[in-house]
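Q: Given only this backbone (263 positions), what sequence would you predict?
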């Protein structure tokens, strides 16, 4: 089924807009198992740190979301990572959904598992209906567990129990929330140690100065109010083929900007 191109009206943020007090980091999880290609981006979560509002917002962009990719045409959003990695995905999100992205950081399957193992695992509550998948990696029954890297990777990729990919994005945010909870218990020195340990598994475009600034402010950021958004939100999209197409994309852009930056 052909998908019609969606018209996006350019809207420029004025200089005094609260967006100027924010830092946006796009976290990417790629379904790559080897170095032969970039992989599709299974996870795309924009972390918005708003120092003016003292909020930290996690916005999940679903893999099947509509995207008009420059030089390619209309595809699922995750295809932009496959054809151009982090830079292409960043540009595609900015072009289609009007978000300002300062930096990105990406991991593939092996990288995510290694990061979680390096951090000592992550505490997650597994639900009854998730067990058909989680039993495969040694989780026998519902309950709260300290998952290792492979178990966490499996948890974040559950797609056929619950609300399919809609709930999968929620699981990805659950893991981030759990990692943040662990980080709140660390000293600044321990945070720096952990950051240095996991960076070899991450592909990113964060310069050293920005990295040092983020690490120095991280204890403060971790105490900000945390909110979650999923794009598309319920009731705002229609399915055309396998692509989730916003009913009114400019309304999605305005709503997202208001929630990330509005006062």
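A: Predicted residues:
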């Amino acid at each position: 089924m052909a998908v019609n191109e969606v018209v996006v009206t350019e809207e420029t943020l004025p200089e005094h807009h609260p967006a100027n007090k924010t830092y946006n980091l796009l976290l990417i999880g790629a379904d790559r198992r080897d170095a032969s290609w970039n992989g599709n981006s299974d996870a795309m979560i924009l972390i918005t740190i708003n120092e003016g509002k003292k909020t930290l917002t996690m916005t999940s962009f679903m893999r099947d979301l509509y995207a008009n990719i420059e030089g390619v045409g209309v595809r699922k959003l995750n295809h932009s990572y496959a054809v151009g990695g982090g830079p292409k995905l960043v540009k595609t999100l900015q072009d289609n959904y009007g978000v300002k992205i300062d930096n990105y950081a990406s991991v593939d399957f092996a990288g995510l598992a290694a990061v979680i193992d390096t951090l000592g695992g992550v505490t997650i509550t597994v639900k009854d209906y998730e067990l058909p998948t989680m039993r495969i990696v040694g989780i026998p029954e519902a309950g709260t567990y300290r998952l290792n890297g492979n178990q966490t990777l499996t948890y974040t990729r559950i797609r056929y129990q619950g609300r399919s990919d809609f709930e999968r994005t929620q699981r990805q945010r659950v893991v981030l929330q759990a990692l943040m909870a662990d980080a709140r218990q660390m000293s600044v020195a321990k945070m720096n140690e952990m950051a240095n340990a996991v960076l070899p598994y991450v592909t990113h475009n964060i310069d050293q100065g920005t990295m040092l600034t983020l690490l120095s402010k991280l204890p403060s950021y971790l105490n900000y109010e945390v909110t979650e958004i999923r794009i598309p939100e319920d009731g705002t999209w229609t399915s055309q083929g396998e692509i989730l197409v916003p009913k009114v994309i400019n309304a999605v852009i305005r709503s997202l900007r208001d929630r990330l930056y509005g006062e």
